[in-house]
Write a structure and sequence with these properties.
Layout: H1 2-70, E1 72-73, E2 76-77, H2 86-99, H3 107-120, H4 153-172, H5 192-201, H6 215-232, H7 235-259, H8 264-300, H9 308-325, H10 338-346, H11 349-357, H12 360-368, H13 372-388, H14 396-399, H15 403-417, E3 421-422, E4 431-433, E5 437-439, H16 449-459, H17 465-471, H18 473-476, H19 480-492, H20 500-532, H21 537-545, H22 550-558, H23 573-577, H24 585-601, H25 604-610, H26 616-636, H27 647-664, H28 670-673, H29 686-695, H30 700-703, H31 707-712, H32 716-724, H33 731-740, E6 752-757, H34 761-769, H35 774-778, E7 781-786, H36 800-814, E8 821-823, E9 829-831, H37 840-855, H38 866-872, H39 887-897, E10 911-916, E11 919-924, H40 939-951, H41 956-967, H42 972-975, H43 980-988, H44 996-1001, E12 1003-1006, H45 1014-1024, H46 1028-1039, E13 1056-1059, H47 1075-1080, E14 1096-1098
Parallel strand pairs: 6-7, 12-13
Antiparallel strand pairs: 1-2, 3-5, 4-5, 8-9, 10-11, 13-14
Helix pairs in contact: 1-2, 2-3, 2-4, 3-5, 4-5, 4-6, 4-7, 5-8, 6-8, 7-8, 7-9, 8-9, 9-12, 11-15, 12-15, 13-15, 13-16, 15-20, 19-20, 20-21, 20-24, 21-24, 22-24, 24-27, 26-27, 36-37, 37-41, 38-43
Length: 1100
């Protein structure tokens, strides 16, 4: 046993020893291999370094050799004239590019300039004879003529490519002269490189005339190769960068020159930069001009296999590069002088670019290759280019483009920009943009803010009067009556009758189709501009709206669209389901935007008496009917949890303005025009039921059959109709819905007790309630009054004191002496425009308290001005709203509107003067308004802006604060169920003579009184004899408001109550003042009930 273990141990030791020796050998082998690799690496490094040193010596030697051969020294050539041949120059060029490396030796750039001078010295008119294939000592031929020599062609082509590309790099960059280390390099503006580039890229220098004209095709082919090489090297991108640097410099110098005269050096710099710009643009245009030459040579060449389609493809590629890299340069056209403009015309750039941008498949390729900033700058340059060539008055056949082609060419980049733009900040649109607000594309630090200001100046051409008149010329000249009658006649004729009238009608229909397409393109243009340029939207729509007769003409044109006319094309089921798919919807959308502004400036005399813009019978009545049905249909077909289509808001704005006008002075049949749900308690008409059935997210049977049941069951579509189109529902129904919402008003907060001094109701109320949340104010609030002597008034608040408190608080806030509200001549209230910002919390507090008063059924004794009610109810205000508020301003504006002379004689500007704290301050009505005179053309804009400032902007902050407070208590949609006159009735009651019998019928008696009690009968008998003034005084005494509640006294809250209160007290009472309280709770002598006393009212 033990010997066996010993043998195993010996074997294991032998194995371990063998393994150890093997591992040592392996380690030694690996080490030797690493050493070999290291030695090899050292040899490679040493060899490479030796070669590097040798190469440096060789390159240095080559430089010295080149310098000696061409007589070059110290960065400047010693010869002013050259007597070298083209072949020698080719050898020198080959030698130079063997050592050319400007990063190692800055003198190489100077050597290259010297080489360019030598090459330019050969550019003489002399051409070699046909028999000559070699140069003679007496003849100097152009350097590029070596391309015709088969012996030198390959090398020459290679060298020419290098020379031309190095010229491009030099020309677009900076000067290479020696400068101090800390100074900035000046831009390259002139030199032999630029002259060489111009000469050897110009196709005119590759034409041979006379007996050897056959060489032209070969020469042109070589030039095509050179052009294609440069284009593949991103020639246009390089020049685009260089052009942008020079344009920035030119614009900066021009801006300084506008402020003060430039010094001589700056004048020279400006002139040189403009010359450089023109020269480089010529270089960029040469490849475009070569296509016709190539086409001719290809047709004459039998050996070349390039087809006409290849030439066209090449032309498209070059033009696309030119557009993407040159025409996207910010404000390029702003730097053009007349010479540059003529050069663009010579090369037919306006028509070629316009055709490209209005061809969808070609435009898409360009737009996909550029950024959002590039796109909008491209649009700006196109607009300025067309404005400079005066496309408005230029005949279409002269440029081979139409005005509509230009419109389409502008639409494509604007449409592309939309995907980069947002009015709200988001994860994708997080960069602020000077024009687009929020932007998702890439930005360029070289683009300054001033460039965007110039861009707006370029685009402004599109919404100036001349261009607008040209754009809508076909609409302004449209004959409504004849076209409309023909359209209606043709729709009524039988299809079997093919008379001459039918053929005329068919012709008219085709003409209408073409007009509709052109109009749609123009409308799309201005809709896109207004959406992209949010800060310029106001100016765009104002200029558009106040083109004389344009808005009415648009309406009349739309009335003729479609086979049936009368706007039925927009009421079809397909349009209602998805308006965006209707090609002509843009016409309607633009009309809505402009008509919404126009209606605000038309006074009642123009609308009803003179009917200058719209005819009531022909225009306004059909317009009201159409928009009512259109908006209702859009809303009914919208998704329950989504928003209606984009056009809905602009259409609804027009609809509400028409309804408000009709409310002020009726021009329609209200029951037939506005009410679409005439009896909400009955089953819906089939059409409306189908609308709601399709759009409801729950089972229609569970919602009920009537509209009112659907509202109570929170059907989302029915609620939208109630909130957004309330006028389609009877007023009584909306009032019932408003009153039913009171049940949800009660808050879960515990009672709040406040002390109020009677002579400081507003201050004490604000201090104790102003810091509370809206939810707390919704809770029970009990009031304890403190009289003038500082003693708490005895009593228990069961509603009456709180009502008295809130009534006095509102009355004190409405007092003009308080400074929160101002009074119109007719006694109506509106926020004081001169109240300070510190008063804004008071408006929020008052909004809450008035909302609480409305919930308590407390009527406001004072009434708000109608224009302020319009703002609360979400309606627009009109020029007519100035009547009764500022009659003097109204008269002045109407005088200006109808002034027949030259308005400029009145010396008005777009400013308004206001007296603030005893000082007169001027405010501009628009940007630059202090320098903009009011003219016959823009006076309507002035009137609009003045009325808008007075009615809207002056009290904007106060109104927003008031509405925010009100909305925290009552959803603002509940108020917007009512028109301004209706809202006045809801808040302040009926301004009518009321019936005593109605009050008697809804009176409650307590503590012994009843209707036939002698005292009560005497009371009613006396009240029956009161006139209206005395009755209103009595009503104000018992309810704090002189007007009855809307719908009668059954809606008085709390109900009118008369109770018998005994004033007797027991002898044991030490404090007789408590007797009324005991009587109130039926304490003390019960016999007092049988003794009649004068009645008192209770409002708890």
């Amino acid at each position: 046993m033990f010997s066996f273990d010993k043998k195993n141990a010996e074997k294991q030791a032998f194995v371990d020893k063998a393994r150890s020796e093997r591992e040592k050998r392996e380690l030694q082998r690996v080490k030797q291999k690493e050493e070999q690799k290291h030695a090899q690496a050292v040899n490679v490094i040493q060899t490479a370094y030796k070669k590097h040193l040798q190469r440096k010596k060789d390159i240095k030697h080559l430089r010295e050799l080149w310098d000696n051969d061409v007589l070059y020294s110290d960065g400047n050539g010693t010869n002013s004239t050259f007597s070298v041949s083209s072949i020698e120059i080719l050898d020198y060029s080959y030698l130079m590019f063997a050592f050319f490396n400007p990063s190692n030796d800055a003198k190489d750039l100077s050597r290259f300039s010297y080489l360019c001078k030598m090459i330019l010295s050969t550019t003489t008119p002399s051409i070699p004879a046909k028999s000559q294939t070699q140069e003679t000592s007496n003849t100097i031929v152009p350097f590029h003529s070596l391309l015709l020599n088969e012996r030198h062609r390959v090398l020459m082509l290679k060298i020419m490519k290098k020379i031309l590309w190095q010229c491009v790099i030099c020309v677009v960059g900076f000067l290479h002269e020696t400068i101090t280390p800390n100074s900035s390099k000046p831009l390259y503006l002139s030199g032999p490189e630029l002259r060489l580039l111009i000469y050897f890229l110009d196709p005119k220098n590759y034409i041979v005339k006379g007996t050897i004209a056959s060489y032209s095709s070969i020469w042109s082919q070589q030039l095509v190769i050179l052009h294609d090489y440069l284009i593949n090297q991103r020639f246009y991108k390089q020049f685009g960068y260089g052009i942008m640097l020079r344009v920035n410099s030119i614009l900066s110098l021009q801006s300084r020159a506008a402020k003060a005269e430039l010094v001589n050096n700056d004048k020279k710099l400006l002139k040189s930069s403009q010359l450089w710009l023109m020269a480089c643009l010529r270089c960029c245009l040469f490849p475009l001009s070569l296509n016709n030459e190539v086409d001719m040579t290809l047709n004459n060449s039998q050996s070349l296999e390039m087809s006409q389609s290849n030439v066209q493809d090449r032309s498209v590629i070059i033009l696309n590069n030119f557009i993407c890299h040159i025409l996207t340069t910010p404000c390029l056209l702003s730097c053009f002088d007349e010479a540059c403009l003529e050069m663009f015309k010579t090369y037919n750039i306006p028509s070629r670019v316009t055709y490209t941008m209005c061809t969808p498949n070609r435009a898409v390729k360009i737009l996909q290759a550029i950024t959002g900033n590039d796109t909008i700058f491209l649009a700006g340059n196109l607009v300025e280019l067309m404005s400079r060539i005066d496309i408005i008055s230029l005949p279409s056949n002269k440029l081979k483009i139409t005005f509509n082609n230009f419109i389409e060419s502008i639409i494509s980049p604007l449409q592309h920009c939309q995907k980069f733009v947002s009015t709200k900040q988001s994860n994708t649109h997080y960069q602020y943009h000077p024009i687009f607000t929020w932007y998702s594309g890439t930005t360029d630090p070289n683009i300054s803010t001033s460039h965007f200001n110039r861009l707006i100046s370029q685009l402004e051409y599109l919404w100036q009067k001349p261009f607008l008149l040209r754009s809508f010329n076909h609409i302004l000249n449209f004959k409504f009556d004849s076209q409309f009658n023909n359209n209606l006649d043709s729709s009524n004729k039988s299809s079997q009758k093919k008379t001459l009238d039918d053929k005329k009608s068919s012709l008219t229909s085709s003409q209408m189709t073409l007009l509709a397409v052109d109009t749609q393109d123009v409308c799309r243009l201005y809709l896109m501009l207004s959406k992209l340029l949010n800060m310029q939207k106001h100016d765009i729509m104002m200029n558009l709206t106040f083109i004389p007769r344009l808005v009415p003409a648009l309406w009349q044109f739309m009335m003729c669209l479609g086979p049936k006319g009368r706007m039925k094309i927009f009421l079809s089921e397909t349009v209602i389901k998805d308006p965006e798919k209707e090609p002509l919807i843009g016409i309607l959308e633009l009309f809505c935007e402009s008509c919404g502004i126009l209606l605000l400036t038309i006074d009642d005399d123009e609308l009803y008496e003179m009917q200058t813009s719209f005819s009531i019978e022909r225009d306004l009545r059909p317009m009201a009917t159409f928009f009512n049905k259109f908006c209702f249909a859009l809303l009914s077909n919208s998704l329950p949890d989504g928003n209606p289509p984009a056009i809905f808001e602009s259409a609804r704005r027009v609809l509400l303005q028409l309804h408000s006008r009709d409310t002020r002075r009726i021009f329609t049949s209200p029951d037939h025009t506005w009410l679409l749900i005439k009896d909400p308690k009955k089953s819906l008409p089939l059409s409306l039921a189908n609308f709601l059935k399709k759009s409801s997210i729950v089972n229609s049977n569970n919602l009920g059959t009537s509209f009112l049941e659907r509202i109570r069951n929170n059907d989302p579509i029915s609620v939208k109709i109630l909130n957004l189109l309330p006028h389609t529902i009877p007023f009584e129904t909306r009032l019932d819905i408003f009153r039913e919402s009171d049940d949800s008003f009660i808050s879960d907060w515990s009672d709040i007790v406040i002390k109020i001094r009677r002579d400081h109701v507003l201050d004490d109320g604000y201090k104790q309630l102003g810091r509370l949340t809206a939810a707390q104010i919704k809770g029970q609030i009990r009031v304890m009054f403190v009289n003038e002597t500082g003693v708490d008034e005895i009593g228990v608040d069961q509603g009456g004191p709180f009502k008295e408190f809130i009534t006095q608080l509102i009355a004190e806030a409405f007092d003009p002496k308080c400074g929160l509200f101002a009074v119109t001549p007719d006694g109506s209230l509106y926020p004081n425009p001169h109240s300070t910002a510190s008063k804004l919390p008071f408006y929020t507090f008052l909004g809450r308290m008035i909302a609480r008063a409305m919930k308590e059924k407390i009527l406001l004794d004072s009434q708000f001005a109608e224009f302020f009610l319009s703002k609360i109810s979400g309606r627009g205000v009109f020029l007519e709203d100035l009547i009764g508020w500022n009659n003097e301003l109204w008269k002045n504006l109407i005088f200006l509107k109808r002034y027949e002379g030259n308005v400029e004689d009145l010396c008005l500007y777009f400013v308004v003067d206001e007296e603030i704290n005893g000082q007169i301050r001027s405010k501009e009505l628009r940007a630059g308004g202090s320098h903009m005179a009011v003219t016959n053309y823009n006076r309507i804009q002035y009137i609009y802006l003045m009325a808008d400032y007075k009615l809207n902007k002056q009290i904007k902050e106060q109104t927003e604060a008031f509405i925010s407070g009100f909305q925290s208590m009552i959803p603002i949609n509940r108020l917007r169920m009512f028109s301004p006159p209706e809202l006045k009735r809801v808040m302040s009651g009926e301004d009518v003579d009321w019936n005593i019998s109605d009050l008697r019928q809804h009176t409650t008696y307590q503590t012994g009184y009843f209707d036939q009690h002698k005292t009560i009968r005497n009371l009613w008998s006396i009240l029956e004899e009161f006139d209206s003034k005395d009755k209103n005084a009595f009503l104000k005494f018992v309810t704090s408001c002189s007007r009855p509640p809307l719908g009668g006294f059954k809606y008085l809250q709390p109900q009118f109550t008369i109770r018998l209160v005994s004033m007797e007290y027991d002898d044991s009472e030490s404090r007789p003042v408590l007797a009324p309280v005991k009587a109130f709770f039926s304490f003390g002598n019960s016999k007092s009930a049988s003794k009649g006393r004068l009645p008192t009212s209770s409002t708890w």
